[in-house]
Structure formats: C-alpha cells, structure tokens
Amino acid sequence: MRKITQAISAVCLLFALNSSAVALASSPSPLNPGTNVARLAEQAPIHWVSVAQIENSLAGRPPMAVGFDIDDTVLFSSPGFWRGKKKLLARKRRLSEKSCVLGKNEQWLG
C-alpha cells in the first residue's frame, strides 16, 4: 500500500513539474498621468477684466453681495481669524466687532 501511494505521488509530481507555467500578459491599469515641471511652468495668458465688462455681464440680474480680496491673503486669512478667535476672543463674539483681531492677524502672517 505504501509503495502504491509513493508511486501515485511520484507520478503526480512528475505531471506537476512537467507542465509549463504560462503567465498571461497583463495590461497595466490606467493611472493618472500626473504632471511634470514643464507643464507646471506653463502659464495661461492673463485675461484682464474691466469694471465696464463686469457691469455689462451683470446687466438684468438682481442685486447680489460680492466680496473682493484685494490684499492677496485669501489663502491665509482664515487660519489667522481662527487663531484670533481662539486666542483673543474667549467669549462668543463676532470677529468683526474686534478690530484688534485684524491687526494681530497681519502680525501673525508677517
């Protein structure tokens, strides 16, 4: 019985080792191509808009509230106001009521 088991095992092993493994060619999954320095350095031409052009584009529309960030702090003013609220205003008050927050914000941002 033992010899039969060994013989069957040997035959199975020979068949397993004799067959060649075929690897299927896989195509890579599409990835985000990303960017490079040359593409990052490209700048679109500046499109200047006059007040008259804005006025003409808004003709016939109802009044609306609009804000313009004229000192280029749009990326940094929110963290400054958050810090001012936490540091200077312990009680719940409106930040606009405290002009000292605006001054401190400019100091923090340099």
Automatic annotation (TrEMBL):
Keyword tRNA processing: no
Signal peptide per UniProt: 1-25
InterPro entries membership: HAD-like_sf, HAD_sf
Enzyme class: hydrolase
Key words of the record: Hydrolase, Magnesium, Metal-binding, Signal, Transferase
Keyword Cytoplasm found: no
GO molecular function: acid phosphatase activity; metal ion binding; transferase activity
EC number of this enzyme: 3.1.3.2
Name of the featured protein: Acid phosphatase/phosphotransferase
Native source species: Escherichia coli
